[in-house]
């Protein structure tokens, strides 16, 4: 399994998106694969880079640059140290290339756009496990992506007892 695949991970630093990263690292990627963290910022955010890249998303950001502190000023993101450690480890131990891309707008639509943009072989997203009523009222990114993405999608469901 693996080798030269591009695996997207929807990332919002929630506990379930962290579980999705762990699942990908433990079960899915091998040497030669590439992980693309897909971040979607609110279209209401007003960062300088948003004006430049709002329609197409940011350029791909290598892991080394993603760790820099000015990223939060440039894109409005504050990377989670635990996520960075996981990605550093998989990059070194499995020779997996890790990059990030930032989009602005509705997460459901932008994640599906990213699948086509980045020519993803597969996508992994976390699910908060909303009940049926909340899912109808709030919508569910994972449900929408499973239905509309043009590649295979794996949903990593959070457990009620998980706090990580």
TrEMBL record:
InterPro entries noted in UniProt: Rossmann-like_a/b/a_fold (IPR014729), Universal_stress_UspA (IPR006015), UspA (IPR006016)
Pfam family of the protein (one): Usp
Q: Which domain of life is it from?
A: Eukaryota
The UspA domain is annotated at: 4-157
Can you name this protein?
UspA domain-containing protein
Q: What is the native source organism of this protein?
A: Acorus calamus
Which lineage ranks, top first, belong to the organism behind this chain?
Answer: Eukaryota, Viridiplantae, Streptophyta, Embryophyta, Tracheophyta
């Amino acid at each position: 399994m693996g080798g030269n695949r591009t695996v997207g991970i929807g990332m919002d630093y929630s506990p379930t998106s962290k579980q999705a990263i762990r699942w990908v690292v433990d079960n899915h990627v091998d040497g030669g694969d590439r992980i693309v963290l897909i971040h979607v910022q609110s279209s209401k955010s007003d960062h300088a880079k948003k004006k430049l890249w709002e329609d197409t998303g940011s350029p791909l950001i290598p892991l080394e640059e993603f760790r820099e502190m000015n990223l939060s000023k440039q894109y409005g993101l504050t990377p989670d140290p635990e996520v960075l450690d996981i990605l550093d480890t998989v990059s070194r131990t499995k020779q997996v290339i890790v990059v990030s891309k930032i989009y602005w707008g509705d997460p459901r639509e932008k994640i599906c756009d990213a699948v086509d943009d980045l020519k993803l072989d597969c996508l992994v997203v976390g699910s908060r496990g909303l009940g049926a009523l909340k899912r109808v009222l709030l919508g569910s990114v994972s449900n929408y992506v499973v239905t509309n993405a043009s590649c295979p999608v794996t949903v990593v469901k959070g457990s009620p007892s998980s706090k990580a």
